Amino acid sequence: MQFTDIGGVTLHHQLIGGPADKPVLVFANSLGTDFRIWRDVIVRLAGDFPIVTYDKRGHGLSDTGTAPYSMDDHVGDLAGLLDHLNVKNAIVCGLSVGGLIAQGLYARRPDLVRALVLCDTAHKIGTNDSWNTRIAAVEKDGIASIADGVMKLWFTPEFHEQRQPDLVGYRNMLSRQPLAGYTGTCAALRDADYTEAAKAIAVPTLCVVGDQDGSTPPALVRSMADLIPGSRFKIIDGAGHIPCVEKPDELVALIRRFIARLPLE
């Protein structure tokens, strides 16, 4: 395991070496998960590209820090981690809140970003009321009280029927996140609006969504793609909010094709 102090917050991360002439792939995870959600994607890409993934603050084995957070806190953590690892010109792939972090990273530190893969995310997710209601619910009754409902947004009915042990495991992952980290990131999501920032993205961008995503539905992701000049938009059939778990082969194929079409540096 690898740990690094970034501005007083210790981040759990993983650096996997790869060919020096290939771009670094950076993976940022969703709300209520840790970087293990990327495992089935990473094992299909390891050896072909250098890879960085990490637990954002308040999640997994990273420090909680001082909650609630702003999206700038999460962006600063990732920028600091990439600086520490001497990574520039990365292809940053973010899922849900990770996708907002990726957009914020490009806005703040374009030198770190060669291209973006924005997965099941948007320029703005949810409303003040929806996030405040969720924060109040988990502060009162714990994350486990909403876990079954969240699982229905994350995964398709087929996943629920055919992969019951996996469903239990991912429910455990969600329920065991630090409460302050979860609610702190809910607050960051509530307050983040990257509508104008999305219009200013000037690097190649792939926008991907599961066809049955209940958290950021295809129409919402498409609305983000429409804001980003020249972006590509793809739907993964048979996937909910976390296609890196449910359909890793399909997601990896999209990522590989996207990288293959990037302009030579």
Notes on the protein architecture:
With 265 residues, this protein is an alpha/beta fold. It has 12 helices and 8 strands. The chain has an 8-stranded mixed sheet, sandwiched between helices. A hairpin with a 2-residue loop joins strand 1 and strand 2. Helix 4 runs antiparallel to helix 8. The longest helix has 14 residues. The radius of gyration is 17 Å and the shape is globular. The chain starts with a strand and ends in a 5-residue tail after the last helix. The model has no long low-confidence stretch (mean pLDDT 97).
Topology:
Elements: E1 2-6, E2 9-16, E3 25-28, H1 39-45, E4 51-54, H2 71-84, E5 90-95, H3 97-108, E6 113-119, H4 128-141, H5 144-154, H6 157-162, H7 164-175, H8 179-191, H9 195-199, E7 205-210, H10 218-227, E8 232-236, H11 243-246, H12 248-260
Parallel strand pairs: 3-4, 3-5, 5-6, 6-7, 7-8
Antiparallel strand pairs: 1-2, 2-4
Helix pairs in contact: 1-12, 2-3, 4-8, 5-7
